Amino acid sequence: MFKIIKYSFYDLMRSRWSYVYFAFYFALGFVLLFLNNDINKAVITLMNIIIVLTPLIGTIFGVMYYYNSKEFTELLLAQPIKRNRIFLGQYLGVSFSLALSLVLGLGVPFVIYGLFNSPAIFDFVLLLITGTFLNFIFVALAFNIALSNENRIKGFGYAILMWLFLAVVYDGLFLISLVIFNEYPLDKISLFATMFNPIDLSRILIILKLDISALLGYTGAVFQQFFGTLLGMIISFVVLSFWVILPVGRIALKANKKDF
Fold this sequence. Notes:
single chain
């Protein structure tokens, strides 16, 4: 499996799209720091970009890599290698390469601008950690969709719909339900519903860490009471970990049962 991870990692590192992905974040970091000249403001701006863009890139790369390497995968399946190791190796190779592009692309500009001497270093690290989690989550979800759909068009379509639902539609339905049932106590339900969407959970973690939860009004106060505590942070990262573990587990099970 480690050889497959190594191959997938280097294969994507040689891909021009990996360099484009790295160059985008690299240029974005320098542009934001040049315009704001304030690391704190740059981190707040980056939050809105990473929370939406990283899941989209992870989804597209995951589906693309699965379908483009299908012939090589069939060749590996003819060898005495366990199926789950093949697909888990490919998944980890894709995830690590995208995570490296994200961390280096944003890390280098901020380090040059004096990140280590800024009080915003912990906020920036939290931003990278949540971005990495989202990357691993959505690549895993994309692999699940691709494994379940042999047709490339359907696979891409379902993957984009999945991202669109979690990034946009889920929030809309959530807000509509809060407005309709505003006469009822929805504190615990809101916290529970947030954990069913990794994008929302990551966004709230970063907002609360940046001390701008007042923008969320009463809801922000409720989230602050839970997510703002050490226990809330631990539970949040445990939930994000489950968002990685469960899809990865399904990849292993699906790979063993799927007829190639």
